[in-house]
Amino acid sequence: MIDARMFPLPKLWFAALVLALLAFAAAVSPAVAQDGAIPTEARFGDENISVELRADGLPSNGEEWMLALRFTPDPNSNEEWHGYWSNPGDAGQGMQLRLNLPDGWEMGEPLYPVPERFVQQLVDTELMNHIYKGAYTVLVPIRVTGEVDNTTREPITGFVEYLACTDKVCVPQDAVLRESQGGDFARWRAEIAPLLDAEASFATVGSGRNSQVKIAIPLPRSVELPDPHAFIANDFIGFGGTADGIAPIQGAVPQYSAPQTFYRLDDMLIVEVATTKRVVSDVAPVSTPTEKIQGILAFGDGSGVRFEAAPGEVPSGGEPIVTSSAPQTPPLWTLILGALVGGLILNIMPCVFPILSLKAISLARAGESEAKARSEGLAYTAGVVLACVGLGAVMLILRAGGEQVGWAFQLQSPGVVIVLLVLASVITANFAGVFELPSISITRGGEPASAFATGLLAAFAATPCTGPFMAAALGAALLLPVPQALLLFAMLGLGLALPFLLIGFVPALRRMLPKPGAWMERFRRIMAIAMGLTALALIWLTARLGGQGFALFALVVVFGLIVALLVVGRLQRAGKMAWPAFGLIAAPFVIFGAFALPASFAAPVTNLTEESIHSPQAYSAEALADARASGQPVFLWFTADWCVTCKVNESVAIEREATREAFEAAGVVTMVGDWTQRDEAITMFLSEQGAAGVPLYLWYESAAEAEQLPQVLTPDLLKERAERVR
Question: What angle, 0 to 180 degrees and rounded to 10, lies between the N-to-C axes of helices 353-366 and 370-400?
């Protein structure tokens, strides 16, 4: 007997071990017939799962005749035995059937019922097998040719080999078969997954361990899918070799235990199956690319359909379907509360402090009028909520279109960062009193347009920040239906706007604000310094995204705009028409930027591994797998240059000498993923962890699953984790 728990090996090695032992048993058994003849004596027997060969009536010339293999676990056994689908998954063995058929008769492809998923956790990996619990039937179609005389015809005989397993042991089984009449063929036919009339299509995406096979299966939208799963019959999807006819075979192997992702797009179901690219090292004749992917789409209620997919176009987008293998989301009410509280906490984050401080001044000015205070509070809230919902909707649309993006995705775009740099520079000049925007100045009190604009700006500025309670809500928004996802984005905005909404509607809170006075103008000038520092940070980010030349030309554009605003301010103070002069001065700089910025863009290769005192490895799925296989604890963090929370955490908790010493003493392997620029592999990994963006901190101990650490790190948290494993 083979006990899976005795072999803490990677899943493919375990599968190979099972098959090798079975091959060895076959080689030494005296009952095995030689020269391809079908054995006439069983080697192992079928006491654990017995098998019978049944026939559906008598064969007729030119008609398809159906045989059935009926597998029945021993009812008197104390163990729960199970058999396997044609592709057993990570371990096990599919059925091997040979029949003695008259000349000219042909055996068709065996037809199986919908299998079940059986997941088994070993020491350092997870196995998924495709099994049948209880009795099950495999139908075998036979094409009958020639004249058939059923009065003299000998019964069909044959030999079958298969594997019987429990959750602890696996036992090889075999049996000599002899046709017998009878059986519940009506029920057995009904249990077989029917073949779809329309052909599916498939395409391969990505490389390495982050590759995928995407399959588009035509399926009416009316079909209910409680918990879908695609069982792939192909255990290897070949990409072909070289033109010389002798080359390593290239292809991909499905990752059976990896979560599958499903999307509905009208009457099409899109399934994404994770694969691992593989090159078979044995020199062999060139393998042509896989022409068909076959499989069974299980609906989750015991029913399903067979499909055949040919290479072709697979559409992107669609509405995501939540499955049991996908990251599980908490109840909706907890996500709503988390989004609300997370948005509320954003008010104390450094991202939006200058803007919110000036908003408090405007509310203090509006405090003398109940109606003005309420209208300001409502307008500000509308601006914040609209911006959050808009950003969330754009993110969902891009993801539905196949783009791998997450929260704050806009800051991975150099063009957006240039716009933010210009905006921050203009606001700094406004705060400093260089010029005035009479209609939407964010320090003007009692004007809904001003409050609405401030809300839009505050929400847009808050997107680089993440805090406690936000991660689960935003991560769940990627998996939930669109209306529920947009509700979470709206609640995030409501949380961000809530303090000012309350101030607008609760007079007692307004009375706690300082009385209007000359101090407001001085405070505004002080906030110009804070906003100017934000502009400097955006200049640094511009250089990180597009290179030093790109940042230099951006500064030229900003310089021209500031000069134009200085002229505007002087004309305003003189009581003259100002904005036409702004257009005349700013236009040459804007035109210069439109041509110079795209030409100078050169994305630099950021190297956080050299900047950190830990000398971490750069994240990749292969590097993470190797680090975990070493048995040492692993600390993996994901960051971005535009993520303020990330940089604060790195300063407070990660890039500390005490943390480095504790990590060295405990042998901690460190690894970092830089998400400053768009990286599909990192985005996919974040989504698998239920995170919509950065920061993300993962701690692995030995073979244990990842522990997701808080998004706001305390100074000694990592040091204590390292000391715990020493």
Answer: 150
If residue 66 lies in a helix (H) or strand (E), which one and from where to where?
strand 64-73
User: Distance between CA atoms of 566 and 568, rounded to whole angstroms?
Assistant: 5
Q: CA-CA distances (angstroms) from residue 498 to 338, 344, 403, 651, 712? A: 14, 7, 32, 30, 22
Classify residue 440 by its DSSP letter.
Answer: T
User: What is the pLDDT at residue 232?
Assistant: 96
- Cα–Cα distances in Å, from 307 out to 63, 189, 269, 479, 611? 24, 17, 12, 26, 51
Biggest CA pair distance of the chain: 116
pLDDT tens, residue by residue, 212-235: 889 999 999 899 998 999 999 998
Closest by alpha carbon to 697, among 636, 606, 652?
636
Give the number of other Cβ atoms within 10 Å of residue 104's Cβ: 9
Residues 6+ apart with CB under 8 A from 536: none
Query: pLDDT tens digits for 436-479?
Result: 865 444 444 446 777 888 788 778 777 666 666 676 677 777 76
**Using CA atoms, how far apart are residues 209 and 680, in angstroms rounded to an integer?**
13
Task: From 224, 307, 235, select the one nearest 271 (Cα to Cα).
Answer: 307
**Dihedral over Cα of 206, 210, 211, 216: its sign:** negative
- Check: pTM over 0.70? Answer yes or no: no
How many whole angstroms separate alpha carbon 41 and alpha carbon 663?
62
Q: Which two tokens stand for residue 712?
A: 């706001």
On the CB side of 189, CA atoms within 13 Å amount to 10
User: Residue 252 forms beta bridges with which residues?
Assistant: 237, 277
Measured in whole angstroms, the distance separating CA 349 from the mean position of its chain's CA atoms is 28
Token pair 């300063």 is found at: 651
DSSP sequence for 644-668: HHHHHHIIIIIS-HHHHHHHHHHT-
- Sequence-distant (6+) residues with CB within 8 A of 452 are 379, 380, 382, 383
Non-local CB neighbours of 179 within 8 Å, separated by 6+ positions: 53, 54, 55, 67, 155, 156, 157
Task: Say if residue 617 is exposed, middle or buried (CB neighbours under 10 Å; 0-12, 13-18, 19+).
Answer: middle
Place of tokens 């607008």: 504
Enclosing H/E stretch for 278: strand 268-285
Decide if 322 contacts 329 (C-beta within 8 A). yes
All residue ranges of the chain with pLDDT < 50 are 1-35, 242-248, 281-286, 439-446
The confidence score (pLDDT) of residue 27 equals 40
pLDDT of residue 690: 74
